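C-alpha cells help. One example:
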Amino acid sequence: MKIARPLGAFLLALAGLLVLAGPASAHAELTSSSPAEGATLAAPPRKIELTFEEPVTLQPDPISVTGPDGAKWSVSPPTVTDATITAAVLPSGPAGAYTLTYKVVSDDGDKVTAAIHFTLSAPVSSSSTAASPTSAAAPPTSAAVSPAPSAAASSDTSGGIPAWVWILIAVVVVVAVVVVGLRLRRTRE
C-alpha cells in the first residue's frame, strides 16, 4: 500500500513527459513565403522566398512551380541562409492556379515536403520571361512576404511520428493511471 503513492506519482510524471514530448517532435514549420499561401498576383514573382522557424537543408529538386495544364517554371538553384531559402524563377504559363512545392530536411533530420498554392490573375507576358532565373536581383512583384497559414505545410509527407499518436499515448497513460488509482483505492477500503 505504501508503494501506491510513489507508483501513482511516477505514472503521472510519465504521462506529463509524454504530453510534452509531442511538440518536441515537430518538423520545420514554414513561417512566411513569397508568394504567400492563397495569394492572387497580378504579375508573377521573379524570386521565391521561404522562411522556416528553424534552419533547414535542401533535398534533391527542392523547389518546383507547376501551373495550369502542367506548365512548369524554370527555377534557379536555391540558396539557403539559416532558415530562409531563396530561388530566382522564370515564370511561364497562363493565368490560373499555381502550386509551389518545396522539399527540405528539418533540423532533426526529418524530410518535409509541402506545397503553397497561389493564383496568377493574368498570363505571364513575354517581357516577364526575358530575364534569366539566375538573376535573383529582381525583387518579387506584388508578392510581399507574409505569414503563411499552417495549412501551407498540411501536405507534410515526412516520416516522423504524427502528433495524434503522441496524444493517443498520453490519453492511454492517463487512463491507466486513473484505473490503477481507483483499483488501489478499492483495495484499501
Observations:
- The two ends are 12 Å apart (CA to CA).
- Helices lie at 4-24, 163-188.
- The CA atoms of residues 41 and 120 lie 5 Å apart.
